[in-house]
Amino acid sequence: MSAPRPRQMHLGLFILGTGSHVAGWRQPGAVTSFEDMAAIREIGATAERGLFDLIFMGDNLYADPAAHPSYTSRLEPLTMLSALAMSTSRIGLGATASTTYGDPFSVARAFASLDHISAGRAAWNAVTTANAVSAANFGRDHPDHSQRYAIAEEFVSVVRGLWDCWDDDALVADAASGLYIDPAKVRSLDHDGAFFQVKGPLNISRAPQGQPVILQAGGSAPGQRLAARTADVVFSVVQDLGEAQAQYAAFKAQLPAFGRRAEDVTMLPGVMPVVGRTEREAFDRLAALQGFLSDSNALQLLSDRFGTDMSVYDLDGPVPDIALPDSYHSFAGVMLAKARREGLSLRDVYNLMGAARGHWVLCGSAEQVADTLQHWFESGAADGFNVMPPFFHEGFSDFVDLVVPILQERGLFRAAYEGATLRDHLGLDRPARGVWPARLAAS
Amino acid sequence: MSAPRPRQMHLGLFILGTGSHVAGWRQPGAVTSFEDMAAIREIGATAERGLFDLIFMGDNLYADPAAHPSYTSRLEPLTMLSALAMSTSRIGLGATASTTYGDPFSVARAFASLDHISAGRAAWNAVTTANAVSAANFGRDHPDHSQRYAIAEEFVSVVRGLWDCWDDDALVADAASGLYIDPAKVRSLDHDGAFFQVKGPLNISRAPQGQPVILQAGGSAPGQRLAARTADVVFSVVQDLGEAQAQYAAFKAQLPAFGRRAEDVTMLPGVMPVVGRTEREAFDRLAALQGFLSDSNALQLLSDRFGTDMSVYDLDGPVPDIALPDSYHSFAGVMLAKARREGLSLRDVYNLMGAARGHWVLCGSAEQVADTLQHWFESGAADGFNVMPPFFHEGFSDFVDLVVPILQERGLFRAAYEGATLRDHLGLDRPARGVWPARLAAS
Q1: From what superkingdom does this record's organism come (chains A, B) (predicted)?
Q2: How far is CA B123 from CA A90, A282, B55, B157, B268, in A?
Q3: What is the number of alpha carbons within 13 Å of residue B433 lying toward its C-beta?
Q4: Rg (CA), chain A
Q5: Which residue of A109, B73, B200, B433 shows the fewest CB atoms closer than 10 Å?
Q6: CB atoms within 10 A of CB A141
Q7: Are B83 and A85 a contacting pair at CB < 8 A?
Q8: Interface probe with A: pick from B22, B36, B137, B162, most Cβ of A within 10 Å
Q9: Parallel, antiparallel, or unpaired: how do β-strands B122-127 and B213-216 relate?
Q10: What are the residues whose beta carbons fall under 8 Å from the beta carbon of A318, sequence distance 6 or more?
């Protein structure tokens, strides 16, 4: 009788622009355009070689060269992930789509389509779109934070309802009788809510995963509630272990109220690993990356993240006691808390933000990085990690080639894909038709 | 000195569901699901082997198993074409997106993305969405015909404007200086119109084709005007040569009023070829296909196409003198005209509609089919054809393997792709930045 296998770690690759370091594209040899499908194919191949659970693409709905230059121009997520579906065969594919600036019929349809195209690897990262600048591209007023989450709650319910309009075996295509679809196995949704009226059914049959996977990253209380009620995977923003443990415990504690178990949702804190063959090599690399930061965009980046004009403050002075506005990024709250704990200057905060936009930076030898990830994973801080490479390709392939094998040796991470779908990788059941709509209606 | 090459024919492959014959999926061995990416890959490979200019995917925004069963379930066009971009290398990729149930920022962005992913092969089939049933999936009232076209005129102008916000060389990515984007080379659109307010710029750089190709198929007077003003390729619905010649002449005559030449727009009448190695084989195949039609959905299909309840009429009686409603398909007008010319019964019309939904059916040996296409092409009826196979794969591969070689032998069709982009295939210049917005503002 073999020993029980230890609990398995899950790994997501976060991609948005040319890497998570604000100036990582300046690294010699780095990918400098996130519109280059050949480079993106290579990133996908590396992630699949590393047996990652999924690739997950963030998004913004506006162009602002000041905030993070390499984020201003990029491929649209659903088209990019659909293309990646063809050059990969096993890895999950997560695309961001907004519940504030989209409509549920189109979103449900597109992700069902991606799930068919990829044979069960689609995931929707549902976001409410924090930045008010987006509104001007859609001729709309930007709803406030609580309104955005009220809309999102209904939006996700409608999408999950649309995904369940078709029975799995509704498409009959019986050439002999001429029956193509069994009409008794397709039903409309007839949703009539506060924000959306959607009749349905969807014009695509039930997805290979039944319901594509839903990802969320909301850090606020309404964001946590939305995730606890509707998400399969949660990304979080943390800066240290204690914070991660507290967030993890608090989030998992919310699940029973929605009829869900702790293991029903995979929680992945974001981490920017800077890996070297030695500790020295890693810190040299981080120093080189930080050397690419410039004062000129420091205050712009801070202003964008904090949702308020920071140029009135001295970059080398203390972090001011600002009130975060409604539209703040969860990064900002985490950073301000850390600054107060550790007495950081505004420049210190900028350096941290520039490195990983507020995410945890983990710098060290491959062994040190693996040790720390294992420690977090085993001490109630994470079900795995959302890996945010500072740049591509080396900034990611080093993690895959140096860190992943150590995690595998320790039995913490798969040595091969064991299933075919993203749900398989995450250890999530394929939900029967009707389960999700009933759960959401009851909660 | 070689003789001048004859004018070249253009070929598009139209795909929507499992084929253009309403019951073509019942053909033994036919593709029975249009959600099967392996089958769609094979269709793309066949079209590229046949050196087609483009694949063009139609769409609907609702599911109605009654109207055309195989159209009810299918992949979403943009995700599907993005996937096809990876399994093909030269053929143009056209996806349908609605100007009534979409927004211009998202549409402009998605097609620019497809153009980057495919290295210059994207085309947008801009439709106004005729069927009012769609509205219920978007919680909206369906605008009437003239309103839809007023919206579409503005929508297309905004999309073309957004595509031109970036100079071709705005993305600098100069690692030495740290300049990623040259801000002087990116500008907002600041559109403030009757239907749309869109600030811009787009969050993706200028497309490889400058402006992705725009396709249109409107048959009404406002549809023709929209196409003459804004489209690069026009699909048309015709039943015979005289009608095609009249449409061709009338459409091309509209172009000078918008500052355009006849050769600036490629006009492709739709044709459903039923090809055999002999004439007998072709007619046997058509008879087999028509044998799959059933009375039960005959009146449903007619009702859908005519936009009015046809079940009150006798299927074997004469075609009634109905007034076409605002939302009619152009198919309906063409069919009614033909029925009056030729004294057809309602069943005759149904048989024609069932065969190709109102499009021209061209049945014969490969030689006969090539002869007829050449005759149309050389007598002022077409710049090429929108090929609508009755079913896949044989219903299409026979055209590629039997008819295309004859057209090539006659010097009417390319023997190899000569350019890399869809614009190259169509013989259209890559427009300089500013040309389209200026033209649309003036017209």
Answers
A1: Bacteria
A2: 30, 46, 9, 16, 15
A3: 16
A4: 22
A5: B433
A6: 10
A7: yes
A8: B137
A9: parallel
A10: A343, A345, A346
* Contacts with B101 from chain A: Cβ below 8 Å: 103, 106
Write phi, then psi, for B125 (nearest 5 degrees): -90, 100
Residue of B nearest to A199 (CA): B137
Tokens for B437? 């917005």
Where does A128-255 show beta strands of DSSP type E?
171-174, 179-181, 191-192, 197-198, 213-216, 233-236
CB contact under 8 A, A62 and B32: no
User: Does A63 sit within 8 Å of B186, measured CB to CB?
Assistant: yes
Written as tens digits, the pLDDT of chain A (443 aa) is 456 778 999 999 999 888 988 889 999 999 999 999 999 999 999 999 999 999 999 999 999 766 667 778 999 999 999 999 999 999 999 999 999 999 999 999 999 999 999 999 999 999 999 888 999 999 999 999 999 999 999 999 999 999 999 999 999 999 999 899 999 999 999 999 999 999 999 999 999 999 999 999 977 899 999 999 999 999 998 888 999 999 999 999 999 999 999 999 999 999 999 999 999 999 999 999 988 887 666 777 777 777 778 888 888 888 887 777 655 556 677 778 888 888 888 888 877 777 776 778 999 999 999 999 999 999 999 999 999 999 999 999 999 999 999 999 999 999 999 999 999 999 999 999 999 999 998 88
Question: For residue A380, is it left (φ>0), alpha (ψ between -120 and 50) or beta?
Answer: left
| A178 contact residues in B (CB cutoff 8 A) | 23, 26, 292, 294
Quote the CATH superfamily of domain B10-271+369-442: Luciferase-like domain (3.20.20.30)
Domain A10-272+384-442 CATH assignment equals 3.30.10.20: no
Distance, CA of B121 to CA of A65 (rounded, Å): 27
Which among B69, B78, B137 has CB closest to A105?
Answer: B137
Residue B390, classed as helix, strand or coil, is: coil
Burial label, A276 (beta-carbon count in 10 A; 0-12, 13-18, 19+) = buried
For residue A164, list chain B residues with Cβ-Cβ distance below 8 A: none
Helix or strand holding residue A428 (H, E):
none
Spell out the SS3 assignment of A17-69: CCCCCCCHHHCCCCCCCCCCHHHHHHHHHHHHHCCCCEEEECCCCCCCCCCCH
Residues 164-183 of B with CB under 8 A from A: 166, 171, 173, 175, 178, 180-181, 183
Binding-site residue ranges of A for FMN:
59, 96, 145, 149, 220
ipTM of the complex, rounded to two decimals: 0.94
Query: CB-based contacts of A175: which residues, under 8 Å, 6+ apart?
Result: B25, B26, B27, B28, B30, B32
Q: Which residues of B touch A166 (CB under 8 A)?
A: 73
Q: Report DSSP letters for B214-226, one per residue.
A: EEE---SHHHHHH
The nearest CA of chain B is from the CA of A277 a distance in Å of: 25
Can you tell me the distance from the alpha carbon of A59 to that of B238, in angstroms, rounded to the nearest whole number? 44
| Paired tokens of A134 | 């987006």
Q: Does A311 touch chain B (CB under 8 A)?
A: no
* Angle between helix B104-117 and B77-87 (nearest 10): 10
Which chain B residues touch A61 with a CB distance below 8 Å?
Answer: 105, 203
Q: Is residue B362 within 8 Å of B389, Cβ to Cβ?
A: no
Per-residue tokens: B145: 């015909």
| B14 bridge partner residues | B56
Query: Is A443 strand, coil or helix?
Result: coil
Q: Are A35 and A79 in contact (CB under 8 A)?
A: no
Q: Number of A to B CB contacts under 8 A, please give it.
A: 189
